[in-house]
């Protein structure tokens, strides 16, 4: 009887801890039986080929964007220096290695882009694709189970790169095939590789900031946040 009582209390404590991680009221759980894993791909203007996945009526890239040019062929400036990056007031991109074994990082994590890139009318996503809206991400979260969406959206691992070990990392199933990878963020310097994932939306929260969605190795949720448009984040394109 004592053992059963202790086990019940542990269960209650675990549920409470999980719910405490969700800092925002998210859509309720929706069925995710209509997930289509296919061989369909998308190709950007650089010739990079991306796997895609259909979740409900949405078609998403399964990988982070790694294009270096706008849709019209114009180059996006690559910035290595930390001071120049945070002071930049026009479109720019960066990668973790900043030139050292860059292709290895790029293929696993994609590139990080600032918010000026999102604003630019030349469009960073390929023809027929777009940077997602708030509504697009909320629909994805609803399909993935609402407040606990990250468990079904996070990748299990990326080659030799894995989410930092923690209770929620071990629970990740990537059941929907969205395969979120811990690409981190760049503020003045790079932060959070193996710990965080941040994705831009196309919705601005002010003249100098954007709404974004994020999860981390300590969380089972996928929440909206606000980031400076000088910060470097991942991009996942969605089919228009």
Describe the structure.
This protein has a three-stranded antiparallel β-sheet. It has a three-stranded mixed β-sheet with strand order 4-5-6. Strands 10-11-12 form a three-stranded antiparallel β-sheet. The radius of gyration is 18 Å and the shape is globular. The chain has one domain. β1 and β2 form a beta hairpin. With 240 residues, it is an alpha+beta fold. The chain is built from seven helices and 13 strands.
Describe the secondary structure blueprint for this structure.
Layout: H1 2-20, E1 35-43, E2 49-55, E3 58-61, E4 77-78, H2 82-87, E5 92-94, H3 102-109, E6 112-113, H4 115-119, E7 129-130, H5 134-143, H6 150-153, H7 167-171, E8 185-186, E9 190-191, E10 196-206, E11 209-216, E12 223-228, E13 238-239
Parallel strand pairs: 4-5
Antiparallel strand pairs: 1-2, 2-3, 5-6, 7-13, 8-9, 10-11, 11-12
Structural class: alpha+beta
* Proportion of strand residues: 25-35%
- What is the topology, as strand order, of the major beta sheet? 1-2-3
Write down the Rg. 18 Å
Q: How is the main sheet built?
A: 3 strands, antiparallel
**Overall average pLDDT:** 82
Q: What is the overall silhouette?
A: globular
Oligomer: single chain
What share of residues is helical? 10-25%
Number of domain modules = 1
Uncertain parts: 1-33
The number of distinct β-strands equals: 13
């Amino acid at each position: 009887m004592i053992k059963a009582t202790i086990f019940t209390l542990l269960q209650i404590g675990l549920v409470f801890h999980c719910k405490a991680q969700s800092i925002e009221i998210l859509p309720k759980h929706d069925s995710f039986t209509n997930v289509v894993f296919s061989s369909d791909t998308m190709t950007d203007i650089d010739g990079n080929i991306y796997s895609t996945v259909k979740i409900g009526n949405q078609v998403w890239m399964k990988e982070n964007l790694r294009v270096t040019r706008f849709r019209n062929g114009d180059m996006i400036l690559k910035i290595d220096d930390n001071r120049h990056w945070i002071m930049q007031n026009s479109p720019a991109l960066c990668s973790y290695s900043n030139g050292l074994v860059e292709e290895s990082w790029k293929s696993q994590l994609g590139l990080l882009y600032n918010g000026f890139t999102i604003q630019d009318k030349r469009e960073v996503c390929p023809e027929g694709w777009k940077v997602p809206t708030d509504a697009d991400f909320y629909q994805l979260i609803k399909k993935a189970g609402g407040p606990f969406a990250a468990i079904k959206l996070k990748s299990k691992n990326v080659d030799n790169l894995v989410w930092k070990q923690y209770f929620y990392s071990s629970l990740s199933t990537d059941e929907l095939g969205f395969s979120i990878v811990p690409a981190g963020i760049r503020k003045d310097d790079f932060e959070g590789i193996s710990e965080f994932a941040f994705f831009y939306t196309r919705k601005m929260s002010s003249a100098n900031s954007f709404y974004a969605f994020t999860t981390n190795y300590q969380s089972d949720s996928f929440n909206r946040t606000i980031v400076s448009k000088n910060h470097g984040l991942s991009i996942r394109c969605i089919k228009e």
